[in-house]
Amino acid sequence: MSSSKIQRRQRERLAVIYVRQSSPRQVRENRESTDRQYGLAERAQALGWPADNVLTIDCDLGHGAGQAAQGQRRGFAELCRLLAAGRVGGVFGIESSRLARNTVEWFQLLDLCRRQRAALVEADQVYAPWQDDDALVLGIKGTLNAAELSVLQARMEGGRRNKALRGELWSKSPTGFVREGSTIRKDPDRRVQEAIGGVFERFREAGTMRRAWHLMLEADERLPVRSWPGGVLTWREPSYARVRHILENPAMAGVYAYGKRGGHGKRHARRPLSERWDVFLVDNHEGYVGFQEWLEMQATIEGNMQRPGASGAPREGSALLQGLTLCGLCTNSMFVCYNKHTHSYACGRRTLRPHGENSCVTVGGKRIDRAVERLFLEVVTSANVEAAREAARKVAERESRALRRWHLEVERCRYEAALAERRYRQVDPDNRLIASTLEDDWERALVALKRAEEDLEVARRARRPLPPASQFAELGKSLRRVWEAPATSMADRKRMLACLVREVAVHVDRSSRTMDVVVHWRGGRIDEVTLPWPVNIPEVRRDSRDTVELVRNLSRFYPDKVVASVLNRQGRQTARGLKFTAGLVGELRRRQGIPAFKAPPSGGESSDGELVGVYEAASRLGIHQATIYRWIRAGLVPVDNPDVDGAPLRVRMTDEFRAFFRAGPPPGYVRAQVAEQLLSLSRQSAPGCTSSRGGWRHRTMQIRDRVSTCRNSHLVHSQPGR
């Protein structure tokens, strides 16, 4: 058997047998298809390929050929690599869909076969991709394969959706439920029902998921877990993720939900829950809580989130009305601003009124908190007896529920012990290999039963009886003491307040400097309180008067950077107690109306000479600055600067000043060292000495008739008699 499309140069290269099936289940069950694909090696030999040149690639078994599987098929990537290297003469597959079901990979394969002139062989057909007719046929087949995959996927998705619309599509039973035909029902194990119901009770008590989780950990409660549907039931310590899954799962409210839609932000949070799922069927099965109660729980959970527009879970901050305040002008939520000593409520929306006046404000929080707290205690006093009775009833129900769980645990242990006893008594006593094992199981069951009975007795003793009706009046009167007790945290006070207060609207009247606090109670009652609106005036910066005068004086001579260094050298500070910088000096000048320093034009000099610093003057004259400082201390060179301690010295560059400094000695003058030898004097006592000790200037003035000096070159006049 041969083909005219396969030539000798193709047979000299490899014949690659590509083996693939879409799923592991097909690999296990459809063995006939796998055998047919491996049998293509015999056809390659029949077409003229030697057995040594036949290569089978089967590492893609169990991987689909669609677009979703792209990048996961190592075998297909190896086939393309061999084709690109020119080592393949023929590619074998029982049908083109085995190679690729997406047009990108398919046409990539065809392009490589066309460039390398490699044949593409199916079970009963040979194609030459470099020929136009065969390339057209292969392109059509690849497009049809991709379309067929889309049709299959749409058909399966339609079947899944149709089953979901009936509420019968369950991939896995939620925790606390078991499969029953095409629907689910509560787990028949009463311990499981009590554990799942206890999660919702904890949330009703705590108000937040994390607090409910902590209460379960403190009570050493356990949650049921099944590793697979119908698997062995195990009990594990509750985790936050599992508690959250139970509270947010719609199945717990008897709702079938399928196809959760993505989204985030305010728009997604405002959408009803029924619009966040493709399928949302209420009363599909029996749940652990009612649907309306579950909706209220979801609203509470979303309100506890830390995001704009949500009240957030009660925290330990000093703001009593956290998440309850509304702006009376724009009805937007107000957020809490904390500072070092107090807190305030600020509107989250800053809009402008037609006349340009701000419509949203920030108000102090302590005054409003005290007013609402006073109203709350007055309102609760009339109903505190009934509230105390309700709280005691809830505590009793919680303890009864915990006691009921221990009863169920004892009942289970009794069943396990009785079952172990029956198994032990049914075995032949002479068969010690089995009898000893069953005896150990019975012993362990009895130990577990005894431990459960002891725990039940401890729980029964710890149960507190319901107080008599006469004690509820005293409990109600002590509400204020409970509210003001140091052990009561701010989070507890916020939870108590949120039980009765729905929202607090704050409306500010700028003209009368008052604010109206409107309290909306959950029962429909509305109370209004008018409070003064104190405007917080920012502290005025008070600069020191002598510092301002000093800056005013220095700014006439020096720039801000030099002025800042002088002020820091004197140990002065700003009004805020900071060290001066050029920027802070500039702020002080602008605040006090002091003009900035203006430097003279570059290179320009007035008739009196240009004022420059000592370093600048020494640089222009080509001498050391110490020489100029000696002249200044001698009083021979005047300085022009304010009489300020630490201010830099400045001199005027006049012709007279330049005349003091010469490049060489004038006629009749010698250097100081020569004068010392001529006069036989030491350097300290020689006329015109450069010592800086006190009195040397006076001596110089006395001998000025005899000796003239030049400080630059240390010259002394040597004419006799002078």
Instruction: Please describe the biggest sheet, giving its number of strands, its sense, and whether it closes into a barrel.
Output: 5 strands, mixed
Weakly predicted, low-confidence segments: 351-358, 603-607, 688-722
- Helix fraction by DSSP (H/I, runs of at least 4): 40-55%
Overall, the morphology is: flat
How far the N terminus sits from the C terminus, by CA atoms, comes to 137 Å
CATH topology (fold) name of the domain at 8-163: Rossmann fold
Q: What would you say the CATH architecture of the domain at 8-163 is?
A: 3-Layer(aba) Sandwich
Q: Structural class of the secondary structure composition?
A: alpha+beta
Strand order of the largest sheet: 2-1-3-4-5
The average pLDDT score comes to 76
Q: What is the CATH class designation of the domain at 8-163?
A: Alpha Beta
Q: What's the name of the CATH homologous superfamily of the domain at 8-163? A: Resolvase, N-terminal catalytic domain
The radius of gyration is 48 Å
Strand content: 5-15%
Count of extended strands: 23
Q: Helical stretch count?
A: 25
Summarize the helices and strands and which ones pair or pack.
Blueprint: H1 8-11, E1 14-18, H2 24-29, H3 31-38, H4 40-46, E2 54-57, H5 74-84, E3 88-92, H6 103-116, E4 119-121, E5 126-127, H7 132-165, E6 177-180, E7 183-186, H8 190-206, H9 209-218, E8 223-226, E9 233-236, H10 240-248, E10 256-260, H11 265-270, E11 277-281, H12 291-303, E12 325-327, E13 334-338, E14 343-347, E15 362-364, H13 365-426, H14 432-462, H15 472-477, H16 479-484, H17 490-500, E16 501-509, E17 514-521, E18 526-532, H18 545-554, H19 560-569, H20 582-592, E19 610-613, H21 614-621, H22 625-634, E20 650-653, H23 655-659, E21 669-671, H24 672-679, H25 696-702, E22 709-710, E23 715-717
Parallel strand pairs: 1-2, 1-3, 3-4, 12-16
Antiparallel strand pairs: 4-5, 6-7, 8-9, 10-11, 13-14, 14-15, 16-17, 17-18, 19-20, 21-23, 22-23
